[in-house]
Specification:
Helix content is about 35%, strand content about 25%. By secondary structure, it is an alpha+beta fold.
Length: about 425
């Protein structure tokens, strides 16, 4: 059974200043320009904790964190709470909002069948986050997970809570408004706990953080006396129902840097796809993909021409795809691109990020990068749906890297959780 608990949050105190100058994007979405901009915003900006510019960063964050706590820039609540967290944003001209729960989620090994990954992880980012945990014993950012709530019990709870005034409200640099409601009523917390008990959860963002937390938990269990209530057995988590209308995944387009669209490539593609020439404009490509959203559709742009591709026969593709993958995974568009179009038809071999392949959220930017010569060929795709991510993960299958881009990202700097060895939940 899934165990979620309230925790005594650490958050910015009034002394820290305007919250707008303190919050950031998640650490793995921050580039060097953003780092410098965050540093300039405030001496207490959260980037100074999650991704510091200083070379001895683990030691720096340790010292900085405890200075801020001692100076009351950061303060720890006395009363445990869970938090309803909402993002309000505009997308394609529409007003959207996504709402979830921030709470302490017990850590489960994937083999236990409670929490499932959907993407592959890498050693270096996990080592980095594990070192950070060892040095500061705090969860600085939540892991983002999804679960199914067809009866909408948690959705109803969120809506009822959101009728009151939020305890925190701030707009980020992408004009996303983040609202947080603090819930301390034991009856309300118990209601949410009961609803979530039988659920399965899928990680959408934060795989490296989650796996690092598992490793940290196991280390702590060997080093100290512990109980099931020890805080390091949990991780601060943001959990959103799949049924939330604001749960959005953006497409991630693929740009090849070293491969041209040759006649041989087009002939190979024509064996499996119906190919039509499109007007080489963003609007035309978007219209084609939108029209064929329920099919296996791609668009290709080489700087002068654009083509729309529609898969002719799923059975032929299945024979070419990875035999170890389930049928559902083999037929995902990003998997067809990687395993069939790139590896078999174009004979690209393994593609290295930045050197051979680029990933881009914006179709307009992707096509501009082809026009500027930064890459030679863009493969433009439709987004995967949250339901498909949830279903695939529970079959213990993992998607190729950069398959999903859940938007928007939860703001970092709104909540922090203490996982020191003496902390109990």
């Amino acid at each position: 059974m899934v165990d979620v608990r309230p925790f005594r949050v650490i958050r910015y105190a009034e002394k820290a200043g305007n919250l707008k100058n303190l919050i950031t994007q998640p650490y793995d979405k921050i580039n060097q320009d953003m780092q410098r901009e965050y540093y300039e915003k405030s001496p207490y900006n959260y980037c100074r904790l999650i991704l510091p510019l200083e070379e001895n960063r683990y030691e720096t964050v340790h010292q900085r964190l405890y200075e801020w706590l001692n100076e009351r820039v950061l303060a720890k609540d006395e009363e445990p709470a869970v938090f309803v967290c909402r993002q309000e944003f505009r997308l394609d001209g529409q007003n959207c909002c996504r709402t979830g729960l921030i709470a302490a989620l017990r850590l489960y090994a994937y083999a236990e069948g409670m929490v499932f990954p959907h993407e592959t992880t890498y050693a270096a980012p996990k080592a980095d986050r594990l070192n950070m945990l060892r040095n500061i014993q705090k969860d600085l950012e939540p892991v983002f997970l999804i679960y199914s709530d067809p009866e909408k019990k948690t959705l109803d709870f969120f809506e009822e809570t959101a009728k009151t005034k939020p305890s925190m409200e701030v707009e980020d640099e992408f004009r996303v408004v983040h609202k947080v409601w603090r819930v301390v009523d034991p009856k309300k917390i118990a209601l949410v706990q009961k609803v979530l008990e039988p659920k399965k959860l899928v990680i959408t963002d934060g795989h490296h953080r989650y796996e690092s937390a598992l490793a940290y938990r196991d280390e702590c269990r060997k080093q100290v006396e512990w109980t099931e209530d020890s805080a390091f057995n949990f991780h601060m988590s943001y959990m959103v129902p799949v049924q939330d209308d604001g749960l959005v995944i953006l497409p991630t387009h693929r740009l090849l840097r070293k491969f041209d669209l040759t006649i041989d490539t087009l002939e190979a593609l024509a064996l499996y796809f119906d190919i039509s020439e499109l007007t080489p404009l963003v609007s035309a490509v978007e219209a084609f993909l939108r029209e064929h959203k329920a099919e296996h559709a791609f668009a290709i742009y080489d700087g002068t021409k654009a083509y729309g591709l529609l898969l002719k026969d799923e059975r032929k593709i299945q024979k070419l795809a990875d035999p170890h993958a389930s049928n559902g995974v083999r037929l995902l568009d990003v998997v067809i691109l990687k395993d069939v179009v790139f590896k078999i038809m174009m004979k690209t071999g393994e593609l290295k990020i930045e050197e051979d392949i680029l990933y881009e959220r914006s179709m307009r930017v992707a096509m501009e990068k082809i026009d500027s010569g930064e890459a030679k060929l863009a493969f433009l795709v439709n987004p995967i749906s949250p339901e498909v991510v949830w279903q695939v993960a529970q079959k213990r299958q993992r998607l190729p890297e950069k398959s999903t881009d859940f938007y928007p990202k939860p703001a970092s700097g709104l909540t922090m959780m203490d996982i020191a060895t003496e902390e109990k939940l």
